[in-house]
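Sample pair:
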Amino acid sequence: MFTKKAKSPDRQYILEFERPLRELQRNLDELLERSQGAKIDISSEIHALEGKIANEEHRIFANLTTWQRVLIARHPSRPYAQDYIKNIFTDFQELHGDRRFGDDLAIMGGFADLDGEPVMVIGQRKGRSLEENIAYNFGCPYPEGYRKALRLMRLAEKFSLPIITFVDTPGAYPGIGSEERHVAEAIAFNLQEMGRLATPILSVIIGEGGSGGALGIAVSDRVFALENAYYSVISPEGCAAILWKDRKFAPGAAEALQLSPQNLLQFGIAEEIIPEPLGGAHRNPDFVFEATKETLLRHLKSLKKLSEKQLLEKRYQRFRSIGIFSETES
């Protein structure tokens, strides 16, 4: 059993709407420091300030706007795919290369065990430092990254292993090299092939789920999203740049794109929202790892009961049912 308790706020990186908490926390730190050498009892003041911090946290995080959730999804201290793999799985053996061009480090994957169940796990990887982000291309895969992911998925199908993917990308890399090596074709081919892989596929949106860059590893039987993650056809900044010719309208674009987790459930895009501690996954990663593991195990158990024919038919119908359309006679 796990508890949804948040740890102390991350003090290295504070979002703009979190600044009132930073000031209160600074006051608490000063009070605690003074109390160590003081001969008078100031425990009541400390408790009062702690209560004020708890109330302020609830006021801020219980009423987040869609744009504020997007900012939390991008928090640099948020757990990344490599953190989920390390803390949820055992015996992870990373595999490299697409056998065509190279090894894109923005996508990692390999064999692993999920509570004794052999699986293939694949994730879009971001870095903690500038050097890591350059190596991982800031989480934006090249076409060879998607081809590597598909190679691993086919390997999983060969050995009848379930596939689990962790999605966290602003989008596929849009540069010249990426276009030269046909990133659109690589993503489109993944969509086609994932639709008919004869093995269970589960995807978790852990942060950013940007456009085809996310969908390229998320044509799955079950899709889950963390409480402060988003999954969209375009980033809010990209939408604002197209519609209003100015990225400053990104908060309004986030609302218009309906990026809240509840919308993912309502539109049938996600099967379940995985809860986060108050303030975001970075405040208590262990809670999120445990909640994610429980969700994966529960849904994997139900998917394994399906025959191959049932699995593929349900996957097909799942994506056919997304969206609203009408037909008229010409």
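The chain has two domains: 16-63, 70-320.
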